[in-house]
Amino acid sequence: MASQPQSPFARFVHSESFAGLLLVVTAIIAFLWANSPWRETYTTMQHTYLGLSLGTSELKLSIEHWVNDGLMAVFFLLVGLEIKRELLIGELASRRRATLAVAAAAGGMVLPGALYYLLNAGGPGASGWGVPMATDIAFALGVLALLGSRIPLGLKVFLTALAIVDDLGAVLVIALFYTESVNLTFLALAALTWGLPSWPA
């Protein structure tokens, strides 16, 4: 039995452009809301607690933590798996292309950080040089999704890899320069996972 043709709206909802447009629209709404006279309701919503309970066990977090520690963890896992696939068998399998993405990310970290420090040297905000180093992966992917098929696949993969390497570098900067101590045990366990062989296809 032939499937029913999808309406233009249904095709749009299932397209990459819809995800990118949804991200941009919700970000604009959040920005306007957080800077409006009703900004306190925005903060209250962020700190509203939601939880799951099973018998005597309970997991209860604020909406902010559900997003940051839950949804974003899943997001980074999926993006990381996609990039790993590209590194193994895709657009970044070439060492030259992968090195180019890493070099571009390094430049995108060093230049904003150095410029920030030069503009704030000697001032109270000088220690915040690590803030402008990270690229927001979600927004980078959202903008790419808005452009849809008009961007070549190779460019999408390159920009995504650049954003991820940039974010990983920013996390490393935070760990080394903005924390009181580094847990070497957990750091060693994380490094160990990098050396684990990939499962055969």
Biggest pleated sheet: 2 strands, antiparallel
Number of strands: 2
Q: In what range is the share of β-strand residues?
A: 5-15%
Q: Determine the number of helices (DSSP H or I, runs of at least 4 residues).
A: 8
Order of helices and strands: HHHEEHHHHH
List segments where confidence is low: pLDDT < 50 over at least 5 consecutive residues: none
Q: Which structural class fits the helix and strand makeup?
A: mainly alpha
Task: Break the fold down into its secondary structure elements and pairings.
Elements lengths: L7 H6 L2 H19 L4 H8 L2 E6 L2 E6 H27 L5 H26 L16 H11 L5 H25 L6 H12 L6
Antiparallel strand pairs: 1-2
Structure explained in plain terms:
This protein is mainly alpha-helical and 201 residues long. Helices cover 67% and strands 6% of the residues. A hairpin with a 2-residue loop joins strand 1 and strand 2. The longest helix is centred in the middle third of the chain and has 27 residues. The model has no long low-confidence stretch (mean pLDDT 79).
Which descriptors would you attach to this protein?
201 residues; mainly alpha; 2 strands; two-stranded antiparallel ribbon; 6% strand; 8 helices
Q: How do you describe this structure in short?
A:
This protein is mainly alpha-helical and 201 residues long.
